[in-house]
Specification:
Strand order of the largest sheet: 2-3-1-4
Number of strands: 4
Number of helices: 8
Number of domains: 1
Helix content: 40-55%
Largest sheet: 4 strands, antiparallel
Shape: globular
Distance between the termini: 24 Å
Oligomer: single chain
CATH architecture: 2-Layer Sandwich
Strand content: 15-25%
Structural class: alpha+beta
Radius of gyration: 23 Å
Length: 213
């Protein structure tokens, strides 16, 4: 096997492994998976209307990745939460929640896409009362609705989720499936690996030509 073939083969294999991990090839959720989710939520005492809300989303699964868009208004005087530091402010409570949430996201190839603080009031509000003020926004990428279901039914998250609720004055979160998503890591990684490998290929070829003269 030539050096050039090895040069291109290694990043190709790495990229293939990444795509296999980052992409859910299991297709839409099946009835057995959804029934298991319903049973877990029922056993945990979740309200039937809340279960039905999620079940409808899962039954309409396309099998694709999606982004969860979050508008956040942090509470100025959050209530005390059992297990949280005494006098914890909203940012501290949210940080405690994310300490539990981030590992669950990452192990399923889910992750934040962008996060930032609001720098001014909403510049355009139509048909929504009380939506003028927000503290921050965040967009999270989910590998699939299957990944969300696994997280939602994970009993280890139920307790820490109370920290998030206490930290927020109000919030809106809704899922979207993208028609344009230039920040997809599969796309960005492909560009990076191609550029670096092509550059190395040119350097190696140039040195080989120079040494052969």
């Amino acid at each position: 096997m030539s050096t050039r073939i090895k040069l291109w083969l290694l990043p190709t294999l790495f990229y293939a492994i990444f795509v296999f991990w980052y992409t859910d090839f299991g297709g839409p959720l099946n009835d057995e998976e959804i029934d298991e989710f319903i049973q877990v939520m029922t056993d945990d005492g979740v309200a039937p209307e809340r279960i039905n809300f999620f079940v409808k989303f899962f039954r309409e699964d396309s099998g694709r990745q999606f982004l969860m868009v979050n508008a956040l208004d942090m509470s100025k005087n959050p209530p005390a939460v059992k297990g949280a530091p005494e006098g914890a402010d909203a940012n501290t409570l949210m940080a405690v929640y994310m300490e539990h949430m981030i590992p669950e996201l990452l192990k399923r190839a889910c992750h934040p896409v962008l996060m930032g603080d609001a720098v001014y009031a909403a510049v355009d509000v139509v048909g929504i009362e009380g939506a003028e003020q927000w503290s921050a926004a965040a967009v999270l990428r989910y590998r699939s609705r299957r990944a969300l279901m696994e997280i939602a039914s994970n009993r280890d998250i139920a307790g820490p989720h109370d920290y998030k609720l206490a930290a927020l004055e109000k919030t809106i979160a809704y899922p979207i499936e993208t028609s344009l998503y230039l920040s997809d890591l599969r796309f960005l990684l492909a560009l990076l690996l191609f550029a670096l490998t092509a550059l190395l290929d040119i350097i190696i070829k140039a040195r080989s030509s120079a040494s052969g003269q």
